[in-house]
TrEMBL record:
Keywords: Metal-binding, Zinc. The keyword Metal-binding applies. Zn(2+) binds at residues 9, 22, 176, 180. InterPro entries: Adenine_glyco, DNA-3mA_glycosylase, DNA_glycosylase. GO terms for molecular function: DNA-3-methyladenine glycosylase activity; metal ion binding. GO terms for biological process: base-excision repair. This is 3-methyladenine DNA glycosylase.
Length: 197
């Protein structure tokens, strides 16, 4: 499903809404806590499903979860859970809904102790010199370590594969294929990116 003649990562041409997401979001480094939290939540919902399913429902998720405002989601109660499980625009999985609410509470604790979610997450950025070729793995030593660290703090649905996908999309690594026209743009964005501390 080629939309133009630009060489992209193989997955980017597999669905109509993927090229735009690939070209404008995937892999650009992010330091904004709300965006990082949103992606962690969406990765939770993606577990066992395709990213295409989640991306097509992303606006519905944003509406349902108060634009993933950590403070607001942390206050969700049984009534909110009931409404979410009746919302046909999102993935209605009770375990995942409860995990997102739990993770919002854990995120608030982390922001208080670490200064920001970003400061903690970016500590797990891999050394570029140790990375294998792009698109060759689904976990890394760093995603495994981050998974253990988050689980120790009470986070749920944060396995190493989920977190590797998170790291790819939020720019902690540049996993665009060698032939992809975006690889250079992402490398430049990462070079100019101020790591949160």
């Amino acid at each position: 499903m080629k939309i133009d003649n630009k060489p992209r990562c193989a997955w980017a041409d597999s669905a109509p809404d993927f090229p735009h997401y690939h070209d404008t979001e995937w892999g650009f480094p992010v330091a904004n806590d709300q965006r990082l939290f949103e992606k962690l939540c969406l990765e939770t919902f993606q577990s066992g499903l395709s990213w295409r399913t989640i991306l097509s429902k992303r606006e519905n998720f944003r509406q349902a979860f108060e634009n993933f405002d950590v403070k607001k989601v942390a206050l969700f109660d049984d009534d909110n859970v009931k409404q979410l499980l009746e919302n046909k625009g999102i993935v209605r999985n009770k375990r995942k809904v409860l995990a997102v609410i739990n993770n919002a509470k854990r995120a608030l604790e982390m922001i208080e102790t670490e200064g920001s979610l970003a400061a903690f997450l970016w500590r797990y950025e891999p050394d570029e010199n140790t990375l294998p070729p792009p698109e060759t793995q689904t976990t890394s030593p760093e995603s495994i370590a981050l998974s253990k660290a988050l689980k120790k703090r009470g986070w749920q649905f944060v396995g190493p594969t989920t977190l590797y996908a998170f790291m790819q999309s939020m720019g902690l690594i540049n996993d665009h294929s060698e032939a992809c026209f975006m690889r250079k743009d992402i490398a430049e964005a990462r070079k100019g990116f101020k790591r949160p501390r």
